[in-house]
Design a protein that fits this description.
Order of helices and strands: HHHHHHHH
Largest sheet: none
CATH architecture of the largest domain: Orthogonal Bundle
Radius of gyration: 19 Å
CATH superfamily of the largest domain: Homeodomain-like
CATH topology of the largest domain: Arc Repressor Mutant, subunit A
Number of helices: 8
Number of strands: 0
Length: 136
Amino acid sequence: MHYSLVLASDQVATYLLLAKTCSVMKYTKKDREMLETVRSYIVQHYAEKILVEDLCRLVGLNEIKLSKGFKDFYQKTIIQYQIDLRMQLAADLLKTDKIIKEVATQVGYQDWSKFSPHFKKQFGLTPTQYKQRYTE
């Protein structure tokens, strides 16, 4: 005999929220403070190369606990959080009179070949297309 489980979308959302809450609850207040310290560090140093090992030393957590904890709390890996932050800042800067290469450098990309694909993945437009759309 086969049983199928059919959940309404609100039941799925509730389940996912509960699963996330349970996952986050296993961290101590000190752990949460350390994760916030890491997030703040990324925000302050978004344009720099950030190594997970350096963040581990900063807060005294091992790499597994830091990486898993960060993803549990912010729903992104440390690297993805930094990329998303850089891309949002780049999008804001592209709406100004700055040239694209200057924007890429300002948000931490010395290599155009890495900046453009990250930007297109985030916004569905190349930096050139984005700039044209929002500055005309």
